[in-house]
Specification:
Blueprint: E1 3-7, H1 21-29, E2 38-40, H2 44-57, E3 64-65, H3 70-75, H4 78-91, E4 97-102, H5 104-108, H6 113-122, H7 124-127, E5 135-139, H8 148-163, E6 173-176, H9 182-194, E7 199-202, H10 226-231, E8 237-240, H11 247-257, E9 261-263, H12 269-284, H13 290-311, E10 315-320, H14 322-334, E11 338-344, H15 355-363, E12 368-372, H16 377-385, E13 392-395, H17 400-406, E14 410-412, H18 430-451, H19 458-461
Parallel strand pairs: 1-12, 2-3, 2-4, 4-5, 6-7, 6-8, 8-9, 10-11, 10-13, 11-12, 13-14
Helix pairs in contact: 1-2, 1-8, 4-6, 8-11, 12-14, 12-18, 13-18
This protein binds iron/sulfur cluster.
Length: 462
């Protein structure tokens, strides 16, 4: 049996899995309180990303654009950043943190956003906004390298590097969630609270599941404060749940301030959640309480009801962010399923040496392909033309037409999910996430059995 990691052979992209680096930088910046990022590029670099976020969360929030036009793209547009910062600070008196996120066009023309920031710090902030706390942070995220995943990683690293400052030990644990949903953040906080661990959850977006309140405040924002970011240098350790979405910042804190870094595993499924809790225990000295053993037992019971009866040998394709895809593949193997195809939407050369991918290669007992720099045509082409038989697809909403046209049921997971209600509210991590994933996959398969009249009678006698 063969498990291969290979790069997509075609040139060009048909139905991309990812969007570009500035998207990831924007996702990281919405996790900070009193922060509005300025994307230095055309309005579309914000508008389409913002639309994706808004579709995913069904919430409203703020990101700004320097609104580059044709003349700026030719002659340079640093002056647009200067104007944008001034307008933003005037319009939003509470804003303290302004990441300035570059894009493909402004990197190609060589706009010096670091120089602009130095100039603004010396002139505008001293003269017009004297006494006001403002942090301008350049984030270089050209779209012609990497993807939204590396853009998130770059932004997290830049923001942590800018703020982290050595002080007195604060006894807290840094938790870099990676590209998470509000439901994931809530589940992670719950696990830490049960262990009585005082943690700084970084780039914290739980509040993007926002309430409608009598005061009519309807704008969502992140909850990681400047103080949280400064204090990351004084923590007992950092856990970055995702290797490719925050791992760089964890390593920076370890190298610069001696804060021990633990990278992964993404706590998807029972095995990886166990490993996460053991790592929290090791870093903090806090024991794993009986309440979590009980939760684990409930999750195991839920999975046992489904695994052998319904999941065994079911063939799955998974696409999306690498840490998520790998975590889901590991979980599927634990559920006796067969991940046949993993699609990673960028060409990160580190994927080949990822220990989790190496472990998958050793573990699988069926033929499995892992395709990097992949698009959704890699999936559709295999189903339509190359005899790939699947029982289930796991991925975000961009694959919905492949699922519909090829009549393969799909359980939505990842970002963005806009064609199902409320998925951002549910975790995929922790024991609770294991239940949500397993039951969601099972119910998707059940609906398909009924729709296709494929042994649907089984559900009468289960
Ligand atoms: S690819 Fe370039 S132009 Fe398009 S949204 Fe990304 S940064 Fe903007």
């Amino acid at each position: 049996m063969v498990c291969e990691v290979k790069m997509k052979e075609r040139n060009g992209i048909i139905n991309p899995i990812f969007t570009c680096q500035p998207c990831g930088a924007q996702y990281a910046s919405i996790g900070i309180k009193d922060c509005i990022g300025i994307v230095h590029g055309g309005q579309g670099c914000v508008m389409f990303v913002r639309m994706l976020f808004a579709q995913h969360f069904k919430e409203s929030f703020e990101i700004a654009s320097s609104s580059l036009h044709e003349d700026g793209a030719v002659f340079g547009a640093c002056h647009r950043v200067e104007e944008a910062v001034d307008v933003l600070l005037m319009r939003y008196p509470h804003v303290k943190v302004v990441p300035i996120i570059s894009t493909c066009s402004t990197e190609v023309i060589g706009d010096d956003i670091d120089g602009v920031v130095r100039k603004l710090n010396q002139d505008l902030l001293k003269e017009k906004y004297a006494g006001r706390e403002v942090h301008l942070i350049p984030i270089h995220s050209p779209s012609f390298v990497g993807s939204m995943v590396s853009g998130y990683d770059v932004a997290v690293n830049e923001l942590v590097t800018y703020f982290a400052k050595k002080g007195e030990p604060n006894g807290k644990l840094n938790l870099i969630t990676g590209w998470a949903n509000p439901g994931d953040v809530k589940a992670l906080k719950h696990l830490l609270a049960e262990m009585e661990v005082d943690a700084t959850v970084l780039f914290e977006i739980e509040a993007f599941d926002s309430p409608l309140l009598p005061d009519r405040s309807v704008v969502s924002h992140g909850d990681t404060t400047v103080e949280d970011l400064v204090g990351t240098a004084n923590a007992v350790g950092t856990i970055a749940l995702n290797r490719y979405e925050g791992g760089k910042a964890a390593k920076y804190l370890e190298g610069k301030f001696g804060v021990p870094a633990v990278i992964g595993p993404t706590p998807i499924g029972i095995r990886n959640t166990d490993a996460f809790l053991q790592k929290v225990k090791r870093l903090t000295g806090k024991p794993i309480p009986k309440s979590l053993v009980h939760e684990r037992g409930i999750a195991l019971d839920a999975l046992a009801d489904l695994t052998h009866m319904f999941f065994a040998d079911k063939k799955v394709a998974i696409y999306g962010n690498a840490d998520l895809v790998i975590g889901l593949a590991e979980f599927c193997l634990d559920l006796e399923m067969k991940p046949m195809l993993l699609l990673l939407g960028d060409d990160n050369p580190n994927y080949v040496d990822d220990p989790r991918i190496k472990a998958l290669k050793e573990k699988v007992t069926h033929d499995m392909e892992i395709v990097t720099n992949a698009d959704l045509w890699e999936l559709e082409d295999r189903i339509r033309n190359k005899g790939l038989e699947l029982d289930l697809i796991l991925g975000h909403s961009k694959g919905r037409f492949t699922s519909i046209d090829c009549k393969v049921p799909m359980f939505r997971v990842g970002f963005p999910v806009y064609d199902r209600a409320g998925y951002y509210r549910h975790p995929v991590v922790g024991y609770e996430g294991a239940i949500w994933l397993a039951e969601g996959m099972a119910n998707t398969l059940f609906t398909d059995m009924e729709y296709k009249k494929n042994k649907e009678w089984l559900l009468n006698v289960w």
